[in-house]
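testing teh design pipeline on a random one, pls ignore if ur not involved
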């Protein structure tokens, strides 16, 4: 591992990286196992070419208040170099203050992230702190120019603010949040834990314990009174002898105060324990997360959604398969698919079951019969649009999908999923590709399956016509939910699309709230 102490050394090393992607872990040193887990994650390049990993160690004066611990913040460069190397880092950038701020802090261009994100939590108690963090991180990003930056979810407000700054300023870097590492008694790893003596260390465990107790009340007791939960945490901390800065319940994205438990809520606390100021949080959830994926035909939704669900341990709800299953039943019953009055009675007492088998594949049963393969027949394909257009069918299946989603923990793919079925989904994605790209993929698919391939212009016309019909039909037209993220998949591999979905999910649902299943 290379130790780089000047910007010139950094630039020389940067040039030698060639075309390898560069992943960056910013730290203030005093590295511990939490930082090492960030470095190890940074080494994983998610299927792409192997990444070079650079760790920075810089105790940034701009982010410390006048009465804070800047001068006594632990500095141990040699040990940090050993720990970074052991975790797989390729370079450690440890500049002095003059190197990073050559004109002195007074001459420095400073950043000011939105006030709305700094009004609560640590922002209120540490004025100027996040301005200092944003300023140094943007300075480092400008010098290092990494493709990816990894930050701990433990400092959740910092993570949200930096994601926002990078987005607002159009800095070309992915910002990835990583899980919090904890001691056996739950205390989150932090460089400031080393200030604690034995007794203080025991007291500090009250912080995670009180937050966990609040989360357990939501899950076990159904307590949704956020003010009461926050008050209970405060009492618990004070009884343990800690001096509380705040206990606040906020929306995890906007960081605005929440009074009612709607969706994912961040309950965060900061307290002084002897010489250390400790922070921690939990995510309170009234149900497990839901992801809604919609988009035009031929955009590759099914393949991507199935793999994404498997990667995150979510149930894959293929609503298209449900409409196909009803179509199959209509055909088996000899009923006219266009006649709503004749279709309606089939929905009474309908027993439609979706189950996930090995490797994420889904089995579909209707009234006890396995129809997994039968629903893919050309006959079903030909009539599914007509059956799905009956409002009695849509209402029955929407009700069933909502019942399936009551406990959450699923990815639902299908038409009007983000608008009508799960309007409160944590993440809504409109997955699409240009007509030209979808035509190209369709041609490839036909060729691989040994079918004749029509000219591309003809395929493009067919796809454009289908889009037009889908988006102008009276029942459940194809529309993008106002709060859906549009993901255009042109030129992206399936793996790259899944990676982007995972990142979008993680910006909304942290590892603490929904951990990934062990590989
Ligand atoms: O989280 C930290 O250690 C610091 O705030 C950071 C991101 C390295 C900026 O100084």
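output:
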């Amino acid at each position: 591992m290379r130790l780089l102490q000047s910007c010139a050394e950094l630039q020389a090393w940067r040039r030698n990286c060639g075309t390898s992607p560069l992943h960056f872990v910013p730290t203030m040193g005093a590295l511990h196992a939490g930082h090492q887990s960030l470095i190890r994650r940074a080494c994983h390049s998610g299927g792409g070419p192997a990444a070079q990993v650079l760790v920075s160690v810089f105790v940034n004066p701009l982010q410390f208040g006048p009465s804070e611990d800047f001068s006594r913040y632990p500095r141990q460069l040699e040990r940090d170099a050993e720990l970074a190397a052991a975790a797989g880092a390729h370079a450690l950038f440890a500049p002095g203050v003059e190197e990073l701020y050559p004109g002195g802090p007074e001459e420095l261009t400073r950043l000011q992230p939105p006030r709305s994100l700094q009004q609560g939590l640590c922002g209120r108690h540490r004025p100027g702190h996040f301005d200092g963090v944003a300023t140094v991180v943007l300075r480092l990003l400008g010098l290092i120019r990494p493709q990816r930056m990894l930050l701990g979810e433990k400092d959740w407000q910092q993570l949200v603010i930096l994601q926002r700054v990078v987005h607002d300023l159009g800095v070309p870097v992915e910002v990835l949040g990583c899980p919090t590492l904890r001691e056996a008694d739950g205390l989150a790893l932090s460089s400031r834990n080393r200030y604690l003596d034995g007794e203080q260390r025991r007291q500090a465990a009250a912080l995670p314990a009180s937050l966990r107790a609040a989360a357990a009340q939501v899950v076990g007791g159904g307590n949704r009174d956020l003010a009461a939960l926050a008050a209970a945490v405060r009492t618990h901390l004070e009884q343990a002898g800690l001096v509380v800065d705040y206990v606040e319940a906020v929306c995890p994205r906007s960081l605005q105060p929440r009074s009612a438990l709607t969706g994912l809520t961040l309950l965060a606390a900061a307290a002084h324990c002897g010489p250390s100021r400790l922070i921690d949080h939990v995510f309170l959830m009234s149900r497990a997360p839901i992801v809604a994926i919609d988009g035009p035909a031929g955009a590759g939704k099914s393949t991507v959604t199935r793999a994404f669900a498997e990667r995150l341990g979510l149930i894959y709800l293929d609503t298209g398969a449900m409409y196909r299953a009803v179509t199959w039943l209509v055909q088996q019953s000899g009923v006219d698919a266009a006649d709503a009055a004749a279709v309606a009675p089939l929905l009474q007492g309908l027993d439609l079951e979706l189950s996930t088998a090995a490797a994420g594949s889904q089995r579909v049963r209707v009234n006890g019969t396995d129809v997994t393969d039968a629903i893919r027949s050309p006959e079903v394909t030909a009539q599914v649009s007509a059956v799905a257009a009956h409002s009695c069918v849509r209402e029955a299946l929407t009700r069933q999908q909502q019942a399936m989603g009551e406990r959450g923990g699923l990815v639902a793919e299908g038409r009007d999923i983000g608008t009508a079925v799960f309007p409160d989904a944590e993440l809504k994605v409109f997955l699409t590709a240009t007509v030209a790209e979808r035509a190209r993929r369709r041609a490839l698919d036909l060729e691989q399956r040994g079918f004749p391939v029509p000219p591309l212009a003809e395929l493009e016309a067919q796809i454009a016509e289908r889009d037009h019909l889908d988006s102008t039909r009276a029942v459940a037209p194809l529309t993008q939910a106002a709060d859906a993220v549009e993901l255009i998949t042109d030129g992206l591999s399936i793996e790259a699309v899944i990676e982007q979905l995972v990142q979008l999910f993680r910006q909304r649902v942290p590892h603490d709230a929904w951990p990934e299943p062990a590989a």
